[in-house]
């Protein structure tokens, strides 16, 4: 069994209550941080831990904290991003449902480190049950003196509030989230200024993902250096992976970064292989935005070496033969799934969720959805594949926020790796309505290209 | 489109207004507009949808222009801008759930309830629609029922039938 830092006590009955959470060592990090460490020392520990943002971008959390501006007499804010909406990702919901105090404990430590007196947890509106769980847990913590005025007699005051969103994927982007928290449409802001300088209400603000904040607790308890010993290279610590799709055991797993992808998919400790005895066709390794990979490239690099679950290893080979860690939303497709249909589905998602601020994204996502709908339903022409390629190229990099890229990458990678399936849909318009293309040649690992010696 | 003339004025109960008063204490005094999204949720929980008249009252309460409420209510997908069934079912229709049969659940709801997506059953009890990812991909297909947002996982056509029967008999 690998080491668990966040989900160690997930199966303990009553771990969602303050009492049981305390019995299992909860709130030790708050005691240690508030009584024995200075805010600067906490930031230093987080830097040493090498923790990278768990929301998707993977930016080092300690460095993000150190950018926070600290002008005299201006409030500073910590906002937790619990707007988990990336298709394939459901780890934060799991954490908040079962161990809400892990997030609250992390919030207290992080707020202290950043000098925030009021902090918000922005939870996506659909998670009303989780909002109720968090509000109950906050009330419990407050009654026990972990929140409110003069926490543990240290003179530090903190109020923590839960803010519901309204159902918008874009509010997972940090500046859109701040706009939404200010009671406006979720339109991402132009950066700079970054939130660390001008965030919520124009004040210096740090926005962190739920899992990143929860990870601060073991970092403070054990020290940043201990945390950095787990994992591989610059991918330190453990990561929650949300596994979904055609797997024997979908669910949330805590892995040590560096676990071979093959072991994650096929071992009984994790997903237990592909459901119904079928073969793996493709995976999306980090949430719907990251490039889809065929089975062979999921398990191994183009040169045949095994691929690992880490930031670096998943992106090995660039977009040509690699993908990204993203938010850790691992979606597996079995041999009977249709890549064209899934690409259309994702394109519809991005079209629906585009905020409409930038033309390339607003128009491009809708256009891609229409073209993919046409191909999927047997009305495509061969030039449509090139058209799709052209549209996605014109979205990528041309928008204020990364939603444009997120919409473009799934389309680009599906064409890159599964072009023949698109072409089959177009050449066999009637057959494609009743059957799928199947696994084709993707399960066969790519052989190393033979090198012809020069004579 | 918002059609103002078709709507009857709403009255906010003192209980609802007390909840409003509680919400705005969470923000700095001059930033009460931050309460807009939570207030619209409270309104929807009370009336099962958000009418223009209700939005105007929210604007009045927060001392902002009605347009500031309209633009928010129309931007976010959770706010119902027209009446729904008593149990408004929302089924996730995004990729991972479709891999495990979400489309079948949507088709089944349509035939079982005898209404199309967005319509209300004759008895006023049910309406349904497909929505984008609900962040429960590993437990799909999933649906949620507003206004409580109770959540149902690993759906089959049989479990949906049972759910509908249970709600009818409630």
Automatic annotation (TrEMBL), chain A:
Organism ancestry: Bacteria, Pseudomonadati, Bacteroidota, Sphingobacteriia, Sphingobacteriales
Gene name of the encoded protein: nuoF
Domain of life: Bacteria
Cofactors required: [4Fe-4S] cluster; FMN
Domain spans labelled NADH-ubiquinone oxidoreductase 51kDa subunit iron-sulphur binding: 340-385
Matching InterPro entries: NADH-UbQ_OxRdtase_51kDa_CS, NADH-UbQ_OxRdtase_suF, Nuo51_FMN-bd, Nuo51_FMN-bd_sf, Nuop51_4Fe4S-bd, Nuop51_4Fe4S-bd_sf
Family statement: Belongs to the complex I 51 kDa subunit family.
Protein name as catalogued: NADH-quinone oxidoreductase subunit F
Single GO MF descriptor: quinone binding
Keyword field: 4Fe-4S, Flavoprotein, FMN, Iron, Iron-sulfur, Metal-binding, NAD, Oxidoreductase, Quinone, Translocase
Physiological role: NDH-1 shuttles electrons from NADH, via FMN and iron-sulfur (Fe-S) centers, to quinones in the respiratory chain.
Enzyme class: translocase
Catalytic activity as recorded in UniProt: a quinone + NADH + 5 H(+)(in) = a quinol + NAD(+) + 4 H(+)(out)
Keyword Metal-binding among UniProt keywords: yes
Pfam families: Complex1_51K (PF01512), NADH_4Fe-4S (PF10589)
The keyword Cell inner membrane belongs to this UniProt entry's keyword annotation: no
Organism: Pedobacter frigidisoli
E.C. designation(s): 7.1.1.-
Automatic annotation (TrEMBL), chain B:
PROSITE patterns according to UniProt: COMPLEX1_24K
UniProt-listed Gene3D superfamilies: Glutaredoxin, NADH-quinone oxidoreductase subunit E
Cofactor binding, note field: Binds 1 [2Fe-2S] cluster.
Coiled coil region boundaries: none
InterPro entries: NuoE-like, NuoE_dom, NuoE_N, Thioredoxin-like_sf
Gene Ontology molecular functions: 2 iron, 2 sulfur cluster binding; metal ion binding; NADH dehydrogenase activity
SUPFAM superfamilies named among the record's database cross-references: Thioredoxin-like
Lineage: superkingdom: Bacteria
CDD domains listed in its UniProt record: TRX_Fd_NuoE
Protein's UniProt name: NAD(P)H-dependent oxidoreductase subunit E
Organism whose genome encodes this protein: Pedobacter frigidisoli
